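Researcher: Structure for this, please.
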Amino acid sequence: MKEIVIDHFAQILLVIAITVAAVALCQRRRLPSTLAYLLVGALVGPHALSLLSNNAEITALAEFGIVFLLFTIGLNFSLPQIYALRHLLLGLGTGQVVITTLVVTLLLWLAGLDGGAAFVVGAVVAQSSTTILSKQLAEQGEDQNRHGRLAIAMSVFQDVTAVPLLVIVPVLAMGESQPLTLPLLLALGKGGLAFALVYLVGRWLLRPLFHDVATHRSPELFTLTVFLVCLTAAWTTLQLGLSMALGAFLAGMILGETEFRHQIETSIRPFRDVLVGLFFVTIGMLLDLPLLPEILHWALLGAIALLVIKVLVVAPLVRSAAFDWPTAWRTAMALAVGGEFGFALLAIAAQHQVIEPQLAQIVLTSVLLSMVLGPFVIRYSGPFISRFHRPTPTTVELGPLPAAATEHCSSHVIICGYGRIGQNVARVLQEEEVPFVALDLDASRVNEARLAGDPVIYGDASDITLLQSVGLDRCRLLLISHDDIGAAEKTITQVRQTLPLLPIMVRTRDDQPVSQLLAAGASEVVPETVEAGLMIASQVLLLVEVPLVRVMRRMKTLRSERYQLLRELIPGSDPLWRTAIDDDARLLSVLLDSGSPALGHTLSSLPCNQEPLIVTAVVRDGHRYRPPASQIQLAAGDVLVLFGPTEQLDQAQRWLSAGAA
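Model: Predicted structure, token format:
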């Protein structure tokens, strides 16, 4: 028994060593890591060296890679985001997947292929590699161009369309024994039930759960909770006879609406990447190398057909949405590359014997070849198209893209820590209409700040992957306003490794760590003084190129208003922080529910909008109105941002929330 365990361990160790070498080689050659995993799988699989003796265990473990991948995709597709993108995604995104699938299915069916197998091949061809095209476009500096943004948006949406396909493909295996209508309706009904179950329970439970977990400030507990939620949702859909990945995707969608989304994605990313890599190893194991000489000509023909068909389908579709032809052709050429989810669909179809093994090998090899050719097609699409077309103006606006594609705005300020100083600076940036995003680990503060309409995200600002997810490479300035010197030094060191020229400003309580932080790479270190908030705010505005005259005028105005903006602070749950301001005025965000006596009142007639209290802002449908109009009529769902002494704030909150005068 011991010898068996040692042998099995040695096999896994050898496979990991080969994988490390292959991934390193691909990254050195600037090739996608996916190709390395697929190559390793083909090499160690049963059709080549056969280094893994227990493929079933490896395959079962690799399934969790798809579970976590769908979970993170769900994080980037919350329901409000999908609604905001409904015209672009439902038109171009759905059209591309549906038309490509139908065209390929029809062609193969006319060629004599079974209907179920033809549908699977069509669905595989319709998928594109978000990983490959986004990386290649970013390397070319075209990820924010018109065709780059459109291609990324459509490719990310393809990942969503793969979810119902994961439900439908296994049902196709029943085609020979009974009609497909009833099983398909049953599968879709189960999918709807799973969505309702996960959505309703998730909306009621998940936000309070993560809010409570976040108060412990334990990365270990937070990561364990992420695993629990993801796997519980996967288990739920599995019990309904559906894919585990579907449940994980739905749970991700629910959590994508919360302030914890970025930290959740950061926590799960290392496990996801490793398990997804393992999944692609298992896909590579399906590649029959001895059969390759026999099918290579068909695979080459299939790869060329895949590229050509997708270009010919996508380009007219994009053009029909009022984009110019150069944008349409370049978008189509970016989307032509085969996608990773095609492998997942192919593996499920082969497992359920929907598609013959030899045909599966041809399709698998064709998609692999398209992924090899894809980066070159994207790289040279510009010079090629420019020979035939010149760009023309277009009136089409893409609007907001999924967070995975744009991740906030460009030329913004990232504020690490949303305490006193962070909020002081944020107020001034808002007045100057300079975009910013803030990170904080106080869940209570984050929750209340988001209610008030502030772009604040829960997360550890010393985590470089989290900073990258909020657009570190596109920001104008990084401001570290918290007082954790160790975390600040860690943040500076990591940022300097990738962005040596980015301005980094750090706030400290005293001047003791100034030399230490400057040595780490900080651009400016500002110790607290009597006017620390004003000093940092003025420096921030200068670094983001606000004219000096305007900065001086802004500082003078703030002083003339007796620092009210600098006193409008959200305290959070820190007892020391709260104690320090209990005798002073502060901010409070109050959500008006359907029973609030304030409904129907105007701000001017509101009892709690009188000295010493004042309503500084009203947040409605995600829009912040500051200062609010005095005649605005309050409705359920509005958030009032109150400023005043603590005692009066507590009285106002009781009246506004519970209806007690």
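Researcher: Any notable elements?
Model: The chain has three domains: 2-386, 406-567, 582-658. The longest strand covers residues 585-591.
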